[in-house]
Amino acid sequence: MQNNENKLMKTQYEYDNQEYIVLNKCPHCNLDIHPTVKSRFNLENSNYNVTALSLSCPSCKRDYFIFNDFRSEVAGFEKFIMSFPNYGFSENALVKNTSKKFQNLYMQSINSELLGHIDIAFFGYVKSLEILVKEIATVQHPESEDVILFSNLISCLEQFHATNMHLFSKKLLEVLKNDYLFYHKTEDFHTCSELIKDSINYFLLYLELLLKTFSINNQSKTEKPSK
Ligand SMILES: [Zn+2]
């Protein structure tokens, strides 16, 4: 549904003949970047060996830290500990269309996943999708706000997003209908989580288009009387 290069991911980054795990997007401005290293710090005691890279975003010019775990038993993407500050959305145009409630939950879900709390992240994404789907349905059907608020995610999708439903696989509906069962039974937890994240991205784009169409329609309405 969405190109991988647009997704927030942990990625390998080589500096001074050493491999680090960093984010492919700037935590400040959310753009895909190849950051530059400003400095490197090692923190070590008898149990832990942590390296902090001070990185600079070539786009927004702001700095941030990425922490990596350099214990010998930790490999690959597991090396990533955290970024400071956390990943944020303050300049993402698509997310700006949504309510603060959605933004808070979505951002907490993303940062939970980055910290490795994938179970909390999964349920956070499902609830984020629900809030987003209901916000869009309310924009399109303001007269049905009460029905929308009290419906569950699936019936809201079926009732108010029927034109979008064909885009989603049966699998997504299964995940959403049985999120608790799926959570316990499925072996492909990662795919389920990615499916929900793709749907959130899809609806963020859809909301952007919808609001643009609204403003074009409103403009042509207000322009008519002056002619
Ligand atoms: Zn930036």
From TrEMBL:
UniProt name for this protein: Uncharacterized protein
